Amino acid sequence: xxxxxxxxxxxxxxxxxxxxxxxxxxxxxxxxxxxxxxxxxxxxxxxxxxxxxxxxxxxxxxxxxxxxxxxxxxxxxxxxxxxxxxxxxxxxxxxxxxxxxxxxxxxxxxxxxxxxxxxxxxxxxxxxxxxxxxxxxxxxxxxxxxxxxxxxxxxxxxxxxxxxxxxxxxxxxxxxxxxxxxxxxxxxxxxxxxxxxxxxxxxxxxxxxxxxxxxxxxxxxxxxxxxxxxxxxxxxxxxxxxxxxxxxxxxxxxxxxxxxxxxxxxxxxxxxxxxxxxxxxxxxxxxxxxxxxxxxxxxxxxxxxxxxxxxxxxxxxxxxxxxxxxxxxxxxxxxxxxxxxxxxxxxxxxxxxxxxxxxxxxxxxxxxxxxxxxxxxxxxxxxxxxxxxxxxxxxxxxxxxxxxxxxxxxxxxxxxxxxxxxxxxxxxxxxxxxxxxxxxxxxxxxxxxxxxxxxxxxxxxxxxxxxxxxxxxxxxxxxxxxxxxxxxxxxxxxxxxxxxxxxxxxxxxxxxxxxxxxxxxxxxxxxxxxxxxxxxxxxxxxxxxxxxxxxxxxxxxxxxxxxxxxxxxxxxxxxxxxxxxxxxxxxxxxxxxxxxxxxxxxxxxxxxxxxxxxxxxxxxxxxxxxxxxxxxxxxxxxxxxxxxxxxxx
Length: 649
Ligand code: ADP
Description:
The protein is of the alpha+beta class. It has 21 helices and 22 strands. It binds adenosine-5'-diphosphate (ADP). The site of adenosine-5'-diphosphate (ADP) has 16 residues, from helix 2 and helix 3.
């Protein structure tokens, strides 16, 4: 490329997104400046891991030096703090690529997520995410990076004040391969020169980092002894570096496991559950330490892009961060470490896919996580409900995905639902629902909507309530997909109660009624043709006069609202629904009488439209023409009050 051996600094621009990010970091983001150190130490440890991994197949890259170390070098006089590693280093092109753009897709997602309400409400999520290297600018007015790639070539110096430009210059690095990140500290960040403060931060955020984090400390000998005032440099290792996941459960104090979890996940809270696994003597040997987070993390917002929260080690060597081969995607909220002694150390990342050893690890881990959840469900109800409120959507996703898979029934049994038989905030399970079904009830009923409040008084529920049949109230955005992909549970099919009525239960009396209503229904069908696909009598209504139902195969009203909100509504006009009228309702009977007396009475259409609009309101949708609705309603009020309406339509 353009790497000429000139010592002139070359000025370059940050990419736009990065400018935005830096601006946010410097001006508004972090209340906890200290986390920059966590990010830099983590980068240094990654750089060491990368080199160590490469050395498994090509030991020459080490050049004989594998004394891994991350050094913190505070300089009181220069007011700088340097984080030094002897890892893989970066070439000039890599420096430009990694420190001049946002390479990480996660950072882009982060910027997008910043705009979302959830991040605003929970600022700790931002700390959980971490913005890596750029966090340095929270504490530094200028950052210098000097790096020498393990692949050889010239060392390079990168420098920036975070204001939109940076320079790169050829440089020397007497220490050889590795990277120095030097922060020229802001005035209000002088605390990061203090050794006790650095010690405290490392303990808090980086204690389990596997490589030693060493503080090069210039000690001023105190007191009046002969050597007072003499400066001596001492090295002090700050982190305990335990591979805590290799220890047996009884040797790990819960508080240590929690501290490990926090470092791993950047979460501020303790996990809801810790799972120690030691698989020995079976088909595959491994140890794992897994955590179920108490709160839903940022991963939820990064969506399906992230597929795992579990790091894969082989005998303490990190092989892959967030390894997708050890858990199914729906368990991506589980955090932790798995260390598998049965894999060769030099396993390549490519061959991790379809690796039979990992397939066994995966099935074992999945089983253990599901078992833990089952135990919580059965033994710690409150804790399970709290867990489910945060992470239930993952289990629903799993139930939907595992179509026909062996874990499907198990996952379905882990789901919690509100129903017409539960109080708000209380839940039932499919198993309990089926156990409570009446002998004559063939199907599991459900109704999908935006919130319990909006659907629990729905006219659709009236007949079920009267028959004493429970209806599941599904209010999660994912529920519609879940219900349609779950399809059935224990041979009982799941059916939405707002679908067209399948059965025609016509007794003699009902037949007579149908005949009497036929002229009105034909008239209304004609007059409401632009809005309703059909107008017919309903047997499902008890108290309400009218309801709208989706024809078989049509999209439900809830789904349509969701699509409209996602901006997909414009592509196709909403499917017309069927207007069902309750023949036993006085309002409907009154319209019939009006039509029978004078088929041309304009009030027939006006009142028919009122019935239609009230059904639209009842299902939680918006009426197309609110002012026309108000006019018709007002006319009806005037008539009811005994005066003569101004206009009938
Ligand atoms: P992340 O580490 O999450 O990918 P960063 O912004 O912290 O994001 O770093 C961007 C990239 O810069 C890293 O992915 C890595 O390739 C490189 N990098 C950062 N610090 C170092 C270092 N100490 N040694 C080698 N490469 C580094």
